Amino acid sequence: MTSIKHVSRTIFLLLTLLTGVAQADTLLHNIKGYTSTNDGIESFTVLIFDDSGRIIATGDDELITAYPAATQLDGDGKTVLPGLTDAHAHVLGLGLLNTSLDLKGSPSVEDAVAKIKGYVDANPSTRWILGRGWNQVIWPIKEFPTAAHIDAVVSDRPVWLRRVDGHAGWANSATLKIAGIDNDTPDPVGGKIIRDGNGRATGVLIDRAMALVREHVPQINKDDTQSALSAAVRALLAEGVTGVHDAGISLMNAEAYLSMADDNQLDLRIYAMIGGAGDALDAIGKPIRRYGNDRLEIASVKLVSDGALGSRGAAMIEPYSDDVENRGLPFWTQEELDNQVIKANKMGFQVGIHAIGDFGNQLALNSFEKAQNGKPSPLRNRVEHAQIIAMSDIPRFAELGVIASIQSTHATSDRNMAEDRVGPERIPGGYAWRRLLDSGAILANGSDFPVELSNPFHGLYAAVTRQGRDGEPDGGWYADQALTRAEALHSFTLAAAYAAHQETILGSLEPGKWADFIVIDRDYFEIPSSEIDDIQVLQTWVGGEVMYEAGGIQ
To answer: Whole-model pTM?
Structure first.
């Protein structure tokens, strides 16, 4: 497969040279087009957009005679959908997987260690061995690994490997020494140093304890950042992603995006959230909106209320069902979180708060209630993940106008441990998309890549079926919380655009909006639900230009 840019522009230029008349409009016909609108799903067989990349009209074949001068492209009966937006992900993290150790899917600690050895042997000059993706929950012995596991294959160089969810890190002894972590190092607030029965640090750090190592890890420069971002963008376009809400970027990451937009090298749309309400936010100062021909906005702030469920860092109101002395790790007191939300909102920034546990979600909702004086805010604040929610807190999303930014693949990935963690009484408030939607909340959907795979059709499949790609469990995991196909598509398109204040320019194929669309190999609305995750993208268009092509429209 090849990536082709500016195909439509080439068509216009050739026609101009041959006829001396600029063809301002492109008419795509013989398609099965679908789009979410505020009134539901609309279908069409013709799509017309102009030379600026804006949609003129959608409709039936009557449009062909209405626009006789338009350049005609035959869609060969293929299905066209709006470009898909991932409403919560980490673009740099995805790009860096190309240059770091990827442990995702390792079935055991022994397999992970073998991959570490292979990577070390293949990279003899790399000083720091960095990577992510391990997950002890899927190992036969569901216990955290230790520094000794890594020391057995590499002890002369520091190794730092983040868990699949990014909320725990695994270090060898060389790394612990560099970070100054020993048996007497206290746990930081919001973090935990895992220790053995004798109180010795084992090599695993949870949540804010990871900062003890992170401050010693060499930081990549702006050029390397931009290269990683570009690699991620290419991969995303091939999967039909035309926009990403990048959750928690650094100042250098922001500068790289701005440079890419200035140089016309940002081939999809980024809605970025500055990580934290500290120095990076102060440096940005005010929201950056509609930058680079609507390719970039930096108008949100990502805060964190708690950790993750897999590492038991998610903050719970009552103790974990499988760890009765543990309630997780709140990152902040209520007052501290309140102050950060109020600061960011007063600066004009939307706030998205990472919240996994029911107490973490309650902290987030309480902060929004205070900052918003108990009513919806025009800033459209968001809860990122909204995974385990107390049943009494579910209605508060709609009441406060707070968007639930969910990731449907998390439900199917977490089902092997989620109910163990929270028990049968609390699980009805977990991954409760139908309850949220029926209460009036807006659901924006994403993947949280590279925690999950970035392919949005996996997310659409999980939202509709509540099953893993293996088809398990039969009938779906708590299938009463599934979304319809129309609702799932809406969550990845128009609702995602709404979550970024972009619904007037993106999210649906309607007149005046950008011509961001994808051509796929089968009909999303007609195929069996078991095939949704197998859909292949043939073309990805952004602003009326082909940014990725594997065949399709002629």
So the answer is: 0.90
Label residues 337-353 b or e (16+ Cβ within 10 Å = b).
Answer: bbbbbbbbbeeebbbbb
Are the C-beta atoms of residues 383 and 334 closer than 8 Å to each other? no
- The HSE-up count of residue 379 (CA atoms within 13 Å, CB side) is 23
**CATH entry 3.40.50.300 includes domain 7-83+513-549:** no
Residue type, 327: R
CA distance 183 to 186: 8
Residue 223 has pLDDT above 70, yes or no: yes
Give me the residue label for tokens 């919001």: 190
What does the pLDDT look like over 430-480, one tens digit per residue? 999 999 999 999 999 999 999 999 999 999 999 999 999 999 999 999 999
Name which of 56, 60, 26, 45 is nearest 512 in CA terms: 56
CATH topology of domain 227-499: TIM Barrel (3.20.20)
Cα distance between residue 261 and residue 273, in whole Å: 16
In single-letter form, the type of residue at position 526 comes to E
Cα gap 353→301, rounded to integer Å = 8
Q: How far apart are CA 467 and CA 474, in angstroms?
A: 8
Buried-state track 287-321, b at ≥16 Cβ within 10 A, e below 16: bbeebbebbbbbbbbbbbbbbbbbbbbbbbbeebb
Radius of gyration of the chain from Cα atoms?
24
The tens digit of pLDDT for each residue in 287-318 reads 999 999 999 999 999 999 999 999 999 999 99
Return the bridge partners of 29, or none.
74
**pLDDT digits over 483-521, tens only?**
999 999 999 999 999 999 999 999 999 999 999 999 999
Residue 142 tokens, joined: 């569901």
What are 180's two structure tokens?
């100054």
- Is residue 342 within 8 A of residue 285, CB to CB? The reply is no
Gap between the Cα atoms of 161 and 131, Å rounded: 5
Contact 81, 532 (CB under 8 A): no
Detail the DSSP E strand segments found in 339-496. Answer: 350-355, 382-385, 403-406, 443-445
Separation CA 321–CA 19 (nearest Å): 73
Q: How far is CA 535 from CA 136, 237, 459, 518, in A?
A: 30, 14, 12, 12
* Fold for the domain defined by 96-214: Diaminopimelate Epimerase; Chain A, domain 1 (3.10.310)
Task: Say what the pLDDT of residue 551 is.
Answer: 72
Q: In terms of residues, how long is the chain? A: 554
Residue type, 147: A
Closest listed residue to residue 115, CA positions, set 104, 124, 103, 107: 103
Give the start-to-end residue ranges of the domains of the chain: 7-83+513-549, 96-214, 227-499
Cα separation values, 323 from 96, 193, 313, Å: 34, 16, 11
| Helices vs. strands in the chain: H and E counts, helices first | 19, 25
pLDDT in tens, 249-294: 999 999 999 999 999 999 999 999 999 999 999 999 999 999 999 9
